């Protein structure tokens, strides 16, 4: 039997989908599960966007497009990205892809060479595909820890110590998955000051949650002098307009746009023609539905943070953006005798019917930061109330049992 490549054998995954498969299996067995594990809006795609897609279908817009995307969408993206960040963006700087995720790989492929020892700095905890793609594409992963005491930001001096002559790319994600943390302006200024001393380093700015900021204004590193030329702005339709399944994302960088277009040609040929026209309407059309979704997410954030902070052994910061909370469950693990957050997560799912993700699903656990789990609050108010109530009862019930055993 022919063997698989080492690259494939070592390829990571996105554990939200692994846990989702666990949830589906339990639900097929008749178990009642409240799931907070998947990061996608629970709203339908706005009707005007659906209608734009139907119109595209009826107008026979079914074929290939240029690999970089249709001009109308690239123009809309350029206007939107430029206006919201107050920087000049040309449609020629924009490349459209089948979701934002492929641009993680395209960026690493475009600025590092396989096996050359080129380094990519990325956050932990962080979106797991960062590390997976860095390893698979033959670069060297260099994790930088995010700290709860800093609102889940890294220390600037820790960035300084990690940059070497081999560093080719820094990945920034704000608002952040999985913590919901944002990089405030003073922290971003400190990052910029460091990067100015290292002109060989590109920046991949994962800004897919940029419209879901609740505390202060969204800050992009591309807004600072000298940074737009070296920054790959990555955004997309999935989170803002509830279009996860439409698979439509885009990246912006003048120098790298031609390279990205070639990578698209070599992989997906082009993004869905129909989805591209839907995205034109999403960006350029009325924003009422998107604004309403944001209002709901803010209400849910306030609800879930308040409820979690009433649960025995749980403490939860108020995240500045996205639709995730990252509660500290170190004490809760001790109360129920769970050795770590992964055991806690597994027991919570199987004993209480509540599905969350553990910190180790987002990279190596940060030393001295305790145990954490992730809730996606892209769920109904009722689900949040019932899910957190189950969590509290799960901890109380197992704490009582443990106390009886000790006595």
Number of alpha- plus pi-helical segments:
14
Beta strands, count? 12
Q: Which regions have little confidence, pLDDT < 50, spanning 5+ residues? A: none
CATH topology of the largest domain: Aspartate Aminotransferase, domain 2
Estimate the global geometry from the Cα principal axes: globular
Query: For the largest beta sheet, what order do the strands appear in spatially?
Result: 2-8-7-6-5-3-4
Fraction of residues in β-strands? 5-15%
Which range best describes the helical content: under 10%, 10-25%, 25-40%, 40-55%, 55-70% or over 70%? Answer: 40-55%
Q: How would a textbook summarize the main sheet?
A: 7 strands, mixed
In total, the number of domains comes to: 2
**Per CATH, which architecture of the largest domain?**
3-Layer(aba) Sandwich
Distance between the termini: 58 Å
CATH domain class of the largest domain: Alpha Beta
Cα Rg: 22 Å
Query: What is the fourth-level CATH superfamily of the largest domain?
Result: Type I PLP-dependent aspartate aminotransferase-like (Major domain)
Series of secondary-structure elements, N-terminal to C-terminal: HHEHHEHEHEHEHEEEHHHEHHEEEH
What structural class do you assign from the helix and strand content?
Answer: alpha/beta
């Amino acid at each position: 039997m022919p063997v698989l490549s080492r690259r494939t054998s070592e390829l990571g995954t996105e554990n939200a989908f692994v846990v989702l498969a666990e949830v589906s299996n339990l639900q097929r067995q008749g178990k009642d599960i409240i799931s907070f594990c998947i990061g996608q809006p629970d709203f339908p795609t706005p009707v005007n966007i659906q209608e734009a897609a139907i119109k595209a279908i009826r107008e026979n817009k079914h074929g290939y497009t240029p690999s970089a995307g249709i001009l109308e969408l690239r123009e809309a993206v350029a206007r939107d990205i430029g206006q919201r960040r107050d920087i000049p963006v040309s449609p020629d700087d924009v490349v459209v892809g089948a979701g934002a995720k492929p641009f993680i790989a395209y960026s690493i492929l475009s600025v590092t060479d396989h096996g050359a020892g080129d380094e990519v700095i990325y956050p932990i905890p962080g979106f797991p595909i960062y590390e997976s793609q860095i390893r698979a594409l033959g670069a060297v992963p260099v994790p930088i820890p995010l700290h709860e005491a800093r609102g889940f930001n890294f220390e600037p001096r820790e960035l300084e110590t990690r940059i070497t002559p081999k560093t080719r790319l820094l990945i920034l994600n704000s608002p952040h998955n999985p913590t919901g943390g944002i990089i405030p302006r003073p922290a971003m200024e400190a990052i910029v000051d460091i990067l100015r001393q290292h002109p060989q380093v590109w920046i991949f700015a994962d800004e897919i949650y940029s419209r879901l900021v609740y505390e202060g204004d969204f800050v992009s590193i591309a807004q600072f002098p000298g940074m737009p030329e070296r920054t790959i702005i990555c955004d997309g339709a999935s989170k803002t307009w509830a279009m996860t399944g439409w698979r439509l994302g885009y990246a912006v960088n003048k120098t790298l746009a031609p390279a990205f277009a070639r990578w698209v040609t070599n992989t997906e040929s082009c993004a869905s023609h129909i989805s591209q026209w839907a995205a034109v309407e999403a960006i350029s059309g009325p924003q009422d539905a998107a604004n309403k979704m944001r209002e709901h997410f803010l209400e849910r954030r306030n609800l879930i943070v308040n409820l979690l902070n009433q649960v025995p052994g749980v403490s939860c910061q108020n995240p500045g953006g996205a639709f995730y909370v990252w509660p500290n469950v170190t004490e809760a693990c001790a109360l129920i005798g769970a050795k770590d957050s992964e055991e806690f997560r597994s027991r919570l799912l199987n004993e209480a019917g509540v599905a969350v993700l553990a910190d180790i699903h987002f990279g190596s656990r940060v030393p001295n930061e305790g145990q954490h789990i992730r809730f996606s609050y892209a769920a109904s108010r009722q689900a949040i109330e019932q899910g957190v109530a189950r969590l509290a009862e799960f901890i109380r019930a197992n704490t009582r049992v443990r106390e009886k055993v000790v006595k």
